[in-house]
Amino acid sequence: MPRALIGSCLLVLVLYTLLALVISGLMPFDKLANSETPISDALTWIPALGSTAGIFVAITAMIVILGSLSSCVMYQPRLEYAMAKDNLFFKCFGHVHPKYNTPDVSIILQGALGIFFIFVSDLTSLLGYFTLVMCFKNTLTFGSIIWCRKRDDYKPLWRTPAFGLMTTLAIASSLILVASTFVWAPIPGLICAVIVIATGLPAYAFWAKRSRQLNALS
């Protein structure tokens, strides 16, 4: 049983809930709703701390964001690498650096693409684009568990209790986030996300067919 994973998720849930309660108690709801930096703005309402707390929280938030970005840089290129190794993507993404043993081509191309998006779009549109794509991807990932459970060769080391309920809640939560994205996200980012999602499925079907053909020849 993955006790560390469950424990860390519960800890993060408790901390985020406490943070939300503290912020909502410090700052009026009308100001909180219109604030672009709610955490730092809320702490400035503490008389003993004032603006110093806001600066500290802003720096802390930057460190957390950099940590999150670092994790994305670590895992995302390895997805393309794994797909390339399974003949589901371009072979160049499967290249490994001879010295650092990292998927260098995948990391460089992903970084270049991210820099390109920053210059050609605004932050809000990018946030809407990635939020919609990630939430839709999570929905498909959660749904795949139902399909895997029906396979005879699916024998995981640990099975989630109340699997049907947990999967349903996860899918419903992701769909709610998908729907809410259409409320606040700019139209250009949503259009790009819909195009990527719509073309991603047939693209995967093409690569999967090609992979089966290559495996048949080998």
Protein described:
- The chain is mainly alpha-helical and about 220 residues long.
- It folds into two domains: about 40-120, no CATH class; about 120-218.
- About 75% of the residues lie in helices and about 0% in strands.
- Helix 4 packs across helix 5 and helix 6 (about 125-150) runs antiparallel to helix 7 (about 165-185).
- The longest helix has about 35 residues, at about 50-85.
- The two termini are about 40 Å apart.
- About 10% of the residues are buried.
Features:
single chain, 218 residues, mainly alpha, 2 domains, 8 helices
How many domains? 2
DSSP strand content: under 5%
**What profile does the largest beta sheet have?**
none
Rg from Cα: 21 Å
Please tell me what the overall shape is.
Answer: globular
**Which class do the helix and strand fractions yield?**
mainly alpha
Count the beta strands. Answer: 0
Pfam families: AA_permease_2
Keywords: Cell membrane, Membrane, Transmembrane, Transmembrane helix
GO molecular function: transmembrane transporter activity
Subcellular location: Cell membrane
Summarize the structure.
77% of the residues lie in helices and 0% in strands. It has 218 residues and is an all-alpha fold. The radius of gyration is 21 Å and the shape is globular.
Topology:
Blueprint: H1 3-26, H2 29-33, H3 38-43, H4 51-85, H5 104-120, H6 123-149, H7 163-184, H8 187-217
Keywords: Cell membrane, Membrane, Transmembrane, Transmembrane helix
GO molecular function: transmembrane transporter activity
Membrane topology: Multi-pass membrane protein
